[in-house]
Amino acid sequence: MNKIAIGMMMGAMLLGTVDSALAQDNTINERQRNQQKRIGEGVENGSLTAGEAAHLEKQEAAIHHEVKTERKANGGTLTAQERRQVTRQQNRESKRIYKQKHDGQHQ
């Protein structure tokens, strides 16, 4: 009976770890979609020039490619270190999007 209870507790802990990792990976995906939307809105309302939008899109694509490659290498998830790195990259990109949208250049 004790072995069964211990086994169930270990299984629950493992599932919690997997759920946490998947939730963080979903956060990365959602953030990518949000930043793409922000770039698109900037193009639509004219706050981003074509060159600015192209540069931001290229940077977003590089982050997306990196995430895709790292997930493929790790069986579909990112390690904690990779998630932190991607989050830092997304933070920097978010700031770039804001600066470009508010720099006074218009299409």
Main beta sheet strand tally, sense and closure = none
Care to count the β-strands? 0
Number of helices: 3
Helix-strand sequence: HHH
Overall geometric form: elongated
Description:
It is a single chain. With 107 residues, this protein is mostly helical. The chain has one domain (2-101). Helices cover 84% and strands 0% of the residues. It has 3 helices and no strands. Helix 1 packs antiparallel against helix 2. The longest helix has 44 residues, at 2-45. The chain is elongated and about 65 Å long. The termini are far apart.
Write the SSE topology:
Blueprint: H1 2-45, H2 50-73, H3 80-101
Notable characteristics:
107 residues
Summarize the structure.
With 107 residues, the protein is mainly alpha-helical. It has helices spanning 2-45, 50-73, 80-101. The mean pLDDT is 85.
